Amino acid sequence: MKQLVLILVGLTLLSQLSQARHSNLHEWREYKLKYGKVYESAEEDARRFGLFLAAKGRIRQHNAQNGSFKMGLNHLADSAPEELVGGFNYRPEFSEAKQREAMGSLERIVNKTYPIPKEIDWRKEGRVSSVKDEGRCNSNWAFAVVGAMEGQEKTRANISEAKSLSVQALLDCSGPKTGCKEGDIVDAMKAIPKIGGLELEEDYPYTGKVGECRFDKAKSVIKNDGYYEFYGIGEDMLASLVANYGPVAVGVSKRGWQYYKSGIFDGRQCNGDFDHAVLVVGYGTDPKLGDYWILKNSWSEKWGEAGYMRIRRRYFDCHIGAYSVIPQFNN
Questions:
Q1: pLDDT tens digits for 64-113?
Q2: What ranges do the domains of the chain cover?
Q3: Burial track 99-120 (b if 16+ CB lie within 10 A, e otherwise)
Q4: Architecture of 82-328 per CATH?
Q5: Where is the Cathepsin propeptide inhibitor domain (predicted)?
């Protein structure tokens, strides 16, 4: 009798495992269809399936904790974390001299008599273009800097909505042909006036790889005269800068971002090295979860809150407020 019970238990477990595997394979097929995933070989498909299952497990475990944000399966769920490494190669050297210089720049920009609003979202003012997808090229540094330029072009050209400007020009024309592996937001901002400005995205479209420079100065729509870089100004001053000036390009640590879906990201896990760049487009306060930043990423609308992330403010999460840059204009 005891042996029969053991056999029945074993058969039940085998049945459950078979059902679970069938369910996972069905989800995998649906996932590949949804995101247009095609792999070169059966071995590659199997490897990506393993990453997908690992992502499912991590997401399930995280969401069971009922924290301030949710994770979800997205187009990056078949990617290994190391595939998202790269794209930002700068390690800011903080010093008292650099901080004094940064504060001096802030005083020229920030209107101290203007109380900063409790919340601001430059998307509502038309100063943020559509979300882009950097693809397999780690060009986040270029997207962040071009985003800061787009916010200024909208105001300077007196147009109703920010237009998408060319990121590809920075990849092709800004120096060493390493833009899909690494780049820096200050170096990129320095390069724009040397190139001759930025064209519209439609005139110099993104390809996701570095090519020959095809910049046409006659089609340039905006050119900065210089830049302001900020080191260690802190989150309160960054909020003042965003409110007074507009969207700001920042360097961050992106550890833990891969499966972010919604809510206010708790960034205690992401205080590693600077390895990514995004655009700060605003800030606000949730009545239950507290203060947050609004970040525009370059991982497509399939990621996060339609391409955006809200992340805790006032906790220095992911190094926000440590390293940032904006364009400078003489008139």
A1: 999 999 999 999 999 998 888 766 666 566 667 766 777 777 777 777 66
A2: 1-69, 82-328
A3: eeebeebbeeebeeeeebeeeb
A4: Alpha-Beta Complex (3.90)
A5: 28-84
